[in-house]
Amino acid sequence: MALFTLGINHHSAPVSVREQVAFHAETLTEALAGLVQAKPVKEAAILSTCNRTELYCATDTPEAAADWLAEYHRLPRSTIQPYLYTLPQPEAVRHAFRVASGLDSMVIGEPQILGQMKDAVRVAEEAGTLGTMLNKLFQRSFAVAKEVRSTTAIGANIVSMAAAGVHLAERIFESVADQRILFIGAGEMIELCATHFAAQKPKQVTIANRTVERGQALADRLQADGIATTAIRLDALAEHLPQFDIVVSCTASPLPIIGLGMMERTVKARRHKPVFMVDLAVPRDIEPEVGELDDVFLYTVDDLAQVVEAGLESRQAAVVEAESIITTQVGQFLHWLDTRDSVPVIRALRDSAERMRRHEMEHALKLLARGENPEKVLQALSQRLTNKFLHAPTQVLSQAGEERGDLQHLITRLFHLHHGE
Asked: What is the DSSP string of 49-67?
């Protein structure tokens, strides 16, 4: 039985493929139980996120797990085969350590994946599919991730536009949690930014979009985090703009949505309370002259890119350190797996020796009970034990043919013998 990892991630497949093999959280426990029952897989855990679906298995037949993945999602194996990777034991261990440490993420060093991996372990425990090998693998993965984060700067720098926006906002406001935030647009970039800002638990989040239904759908997703959310039509922007302390815009509009005049009226209505604005659109949604107003702090996509670039340079240096830590830890874990293979032989050897010891002890006690000389009984006990312990290796050595040289070398190592002994 060996460890394998197989799956599809953002490196190997586009989202159109990844979404076909994603697992819903509420069905994971049942899916795991079905995998172990239906296929020759002894242990299993499933990590399913927006960027990856991975099966961590203890099995001798990883192909069976790959077949199950396709069968479960009612897909021909040929549909996922071009995007599917299967990692044997050494690579599987390294992969698990890198994933937990954030080195395999779309944003290097992001911490969310560690929590998602811990959730996957919890579900596997509930399903009864987490055995000794996988449990040890994941616990070591979490320990490696902790070491990477505590001894390198892997998570200390800003490496995404969304995170950079939050970082800059924190320079203007003591706490983002006390602010009201307006997002203009409802596309992928706005959703990413909204997720980052929502993590700060702001007072209110509002989505302004040409189609209010789409804006409301995004607002509803954010509301799941316990934040007050709403959506407005884009043509009502001027009326609502003075309510907001933070404005983030990213639309496909060919012309600016917020002009100088609109923002002058907004600043006056706010009685010069500061406004933090981020314009991620190209072409720009906010007229550049807006940034010249007092109490308005306007940042463009280029400004955020500078923050990201500085963070990436620092983080890449940390990646080198992190990979070194992981290489050392992989070696130690593989050594543990190798020694684990010897456990049955060691146990059998000890059991055999114990049976000999008990047998000779019983024999010696009977002799003593009959009044035999204790010194002679002890001499006989030690001689009989020595002969029994050495009988098998000496017999094999005396009967050996071409392998005698190898056996002699092995016995010398096993019994720490030296020349002349």
From this structure: -SSEEEEEEEES-HHHHHH
